[in-house]
Amino acid sequence: MLDKIIHFLKNTDGYISGEEISEALNISRAGIWKHMQELRSQGYDIVAVPHLGYKLESSPDKPFSHEIKHNLHTKILGKKIFYFDTVFSTMDEAFRLGMEGAEEGTVICAESQTKGRGRLGRSWSSPKGKGIYMSVILRPRLSPTEVSQLTLLAAVAAAEAIQKVSGLSAMIKWPNDLLIGGKKVVGILTELSAETDRVKFVAIGIGINVNTPVNQLPPHATSLKNEADKNFSRVELIREILRSLEEWYLRFQEEGPAVVMMRWKELSSTLGKHIKISDPNQTIEGKAIDIDDDGGLLIRSDSGIVVKKMSGDVVQIS
Ligand code: BTN
CA 93: distance to chain centroid? Predict the structure, then answer.
């Protein structure tokens, strides 16, 4: 109901009468008043004038479901959005909901995470109200080994959304870190629930340092605010990420992974660079020469052998 009321308020220039809303939504005037009070308590500035009705003066930049859904215009992503003030991790919530059968495209957003997690067992700094901490549930018809393609797809979608909303160009460090000026601004984590050869669901976790002061970030990280010297709307960026993610997901399903990989390569800061890639078993040094359609990184080691890596931590040397 709140999303419908928000829709009315945002699409009206000036005042809209309680009567008009109550007729359109088939709820009592007292019911409307209660919802207005609820919205006010969430930070919406709503003016009420006798005989004129209600007017929305301003909305909070909080990733509420009804706020994100306004003018979203997606087909699959964001039909259901769960908002939390504080969670351990939006990935935990995505798993809980995924296990309960949540539909494809379900989104989980939080204002803060107390146990935000990253790749390779790292943590993700998630100060309250500053960044985007979200997970999206997908139910692709893929085998578990193909899921890394979605991780790369998410990096492409996030880079394009950031460019559109902020004008900043973020480059992708393999597999899925987004960097601006060599500093990390976005992290993406893909986790899945699967049977031997069938994916039940995938949770794509996206963390973006949006308005985060650098002193609340780890070393070698930056935020959009720090790069552009201004604040950005988290809600607007979440909407754009959902649109871009959906567009790429549909293309991926229709045309296959090659289109995604092509765009990934254009946005890559890793290919052509001399890198060091490490996992618990080995460290390889060499030139990153290409990625495969399954998202694996091809490295020509200094001894001339080409090695393919599906995971690992990359340090770009030159
Ligand atoms: C990485 O760079 O290692 C990935 C970081 C992913 C962080 C996001 S924030 C939203 C979601 N919830 C988490 O706990 N992690 C992901």
Answer: 15
CB-CB neighbours of 77 under 10 Å: 25
Residues in Cβ contact with 122 at an 8 Å cutoff, skipping those fewer than 6 apart:
none
Region class of 28: left (phi > 0), else alpha (psi between -120 and 50), else beta = beta
Closest CA to 185 of 232, 147, 148: 232
Atom 11 of ligand 1, nearest CA residue: 205
Q: Is the peptide bond before 175 cis (omega within 30 degrees of 0)?
A: yes
Tens-digit pLDDT profile for residues 99-126: 999 999 999 999 999 999 999 889 999 9
Q: Which residues pair with 189 in a beta bridge?
A: 205
Which ligand 1 atom lies nearest to the CA of residue 89? Answer: 14
CB 224 within 8 A of CB 168: yes
Percent of residues, the chain, with pLDDT higher than 90:
87
Q: Is the pLDDT of residue 35 over 90?
A: yes
Cβ-Cβ contacts under 8 Å for 257 (sequence gap 6 or more): 146, 149, 293, 294, 295
- Residue in the structure block whose two tokens are 């629930």: 193
Strand ranges in 199-257 using DSSP code E only, listed in sequence order: 199-208
Residue 280 banded pLDDT, cuts 50, 70, 90: confident
**d(C-alpha 138, C-alpha 98), whole Å:** 9
Q: Give pTM, 2 decimals.
A: 0.94
Residues 135-155, mean pLDDT to the nearest whole number: 95
Residue 303 has pLDDT above 90, yes or no: no
245 alpha-carbon distance from chain centroid = 8
Computed over every residue of the chain, the mean pLDDT equals 95
pLDDT at position 255, please?
96
Work out which ligand 1 atom sits closest to the CA atom of 117: 14
- Which residues are paired to 171 by β-bridges? 179
* Best probe residue, ligand 1, of 87, 88, 91, 237 (max atoms within 8 Å of C-beta): 91
Name the residue among 165, 154, 189, 166 with its Cα closest to residue 267.
154
